[in-house]
What we know:
Blueprint: H1 2-11, H2 13-24, H3 36-49, E1 53-58, E2 72-79, E3 82-92, E4 110-112, E5 115-117, H4 121-141, E6 146-154, H5 165-170, E7 181-184, E8 192-197, E9 199-208, H6 223-243, E10 260-268, E11 285-294, H7 300-317, E12 323-331, E13 334-335, H8 341-354, E14 359-363, H9 369-374, E15 381-383, E16 398-400, H10 401-419
Parallel strand pairs: 3-6, 3-7, 7-15, 8-14
Antiparallel strand pairs: 1-2, 2-6, 4-5, 5-16, 8-13, 9-11, 9-12, 10-11
Amino acid sequence: MPDALHRRIDDKTEDLVALTQELVRIPTVNPPGEAYTDCAEALGRRLAARGFEVGYHRAEGAVADSARFPRTNVVARIEGKRPGPCVHFNGHIDVVPAGLGWSFDPFGGELRDGRIYGRGTCDMKGGLAAAVIAVEALLEAEPDWPGAIEISGTVDEESGGYGGVGYLAERGFFSKPQVDHVIIPEPLNVDRVCLGHRGVWWAEIETLGRTAHGSMPFLGDCAVRHMAAFLARVESELYPRLAAKRTEMPVVPEGARQSTLNLNALHGGLAEGFDGLPSPMVPDSCRLVIDRRFLIEEDLEEVKQEVVGLLEDLKAGRPGFDYRLREVMSFLPTMTEADAPVVRAISAGIEAVLGRPAQPVVSPGTYDQKHVVRIGHLKDCIAYGPGILDLAHQPDEYIVVADMVASAKVMAGATLALLKGAAG
């Protein structure tokens, strides 16, 4: 059966390319969340034509959901001839903005030299298309399969996933008994099994001051200077401490095996977007958004206290220093066991297709596995997809067609093993 299944996927290469191009040409840019419904319906129509029961689920009330930008998810399910487990493929349909520096139309899906170029080819519409082709080939080659297969196209992964997998998980879509195994075709490279991800804590820190005329700053209290004092402590004290922390998690790339802190955004004084001449004002507010990625060996409360401790020290010792801290979001690290059924099934598929052992890795950033584990309490979940990790969110993003074909073979074989219990 594996050889016949692989040949069937090879025969579907042109279809795989065409499906990837179709999805990429629907510009599901997030923010603000454009064309979600169009993309969900395109995927739903294809799966319905192949016998899936298709449902559309708008995350009404979720962050950023609106009549203009509805958070539309699609979930499709097909039942086998007899009882068995359910394998679920989940792919997010949203993509980040194209940005500058492209040599290709970012939403053209151009095929050149064995690569498809465009925003979302790698992250992760190419992976989603490969999963669809894998399942279609399996249904054609193995008509007497047990259990159930689900495929979902979900939204907002790039902004936390609350309107996508998070919303669906709260409604039981990623829990037993409906689902047993979840594969997320994120771009972690075709020979890697991604077991999980580091933790994340996002927060906004605002330093406070008092306005005055810019020609007499001594009559005010500059919030930007207070922020500069905090950043100086971050540079001299916090960054060295983070660099010394290392994890046993197999995080890639190597630089992400330590704790990290990114300064996402800094705003102070004059409002953003003003094109005229500034007024002479001492700023009374300065806001900094931080992105702290932490390790499975770290405690979230200790992670927070590292930052709060610096702020409190400044409040106690620097005249006029005051601040507010607003937590934006936090997720704990997660890592599926190396001998879990879905890990063994995908690993065996990689070795069978590529002729080399699978490399277990952990992602530097979070993805929707966090909701499957945290809300759905389903631990048999991994990421496996054909994209090259380093190309995500870059100009001239692309996906290699041969990698998509290989990953489809891996996913098809793994699905069959999981459905038949061979990987259990």
